[in-house]
């Protein structure tokens, strides 16, 4: 704009170039329209041009073909460029056709959904990759996030799995952290809540919704933006808490750090009806209903391995079983809201029942009968005999010598004993060969003399 304005005032191209600090060819190109501001001219040949038609045909045949797969194909055809240059060329030319089902919420206007105070809580599981090695949960940790749609306050709880009992336990814990219950809950089509195909709520979860007196709404399939509040909370949990979590953190420490991070984000500013408020102030004014005193009584079960000390680990504590089960897999069962746990074998036999200690307390709970039985088993297996001396000289005993003689006698009468080697026969053969050689030499000398 400045170049065109100065040219309209009668400035020369050289004066404009000196004034704006550009080359005269650049100024001349802008004035003539040969160059467009913000668009860099290509400095080399377009190596993608010969392959553009092939890519257009392949993407027309298969709009969902991965770019890396197509890149491998064109490299095999002689494409010399890199992958990033290839994908940029595909995007600039618009070679990939638009797929409406896959881009249902992309590139179109979005409606603003009103969320009245106290109306809706949005829920979602987040699978967090690469958990600390000491957690022993596999390749992913499971985090349930709940967010209030009106205010944006969110909380999360780590869980051992994503089955229905763990979901119910996590929902109850998150609801207490949020400060109460809304009138409705919104989920995506997770199998523990509804049928992924029809979207109808399962009978098991219907009992949960009835217990907490909430209505349940399901998102349409492949419309994650319908629960955008919890999706943004997922991003905050992953980027502002999980990414910086140290490897040495335990599950309890990680949960405490998550609670602190979520509470700190309640200070975010919001503007409602012309007033500047924080997320925490909006959430406190939502008028949430109180959570029942006890969670829904779902039966939670996890599989554990008995240690060498006849102990089973569960939620940061150790619980005893009888002796003789070291290394075996058992099932720890706990009904939500109860203060006891049961330990059963793989066939369902109950082998122990304990009062549950607070999670993460590091307590060892031992039943008296288990202590007595374990001590008895250890003492019975204990021996006070003096240990053996491994450097003592102990030659073969008479029995071993007799057995060795018997084996030697068998070898003397075996097939090897019948093999006889007579060296006299070899000497006779050697003598005959020597006489023949001497006779042949004398005959040769006589023939030379006659000649």
TrEMBL record:
Task: Domain (Integrase catalytic): give its ranges.
Answer: 112-298
Short name of one Pfam family:
Mu-transpos_C_2
Q: Which residues cross the membrane?
A: none
The superkingdom of the source organism is Bacteria
Q: Which InterPro entries match?
A: Integrase_cat-core, IstA-like_C
What's the protein name? Answer: Integrase catalytic domain-containing protein
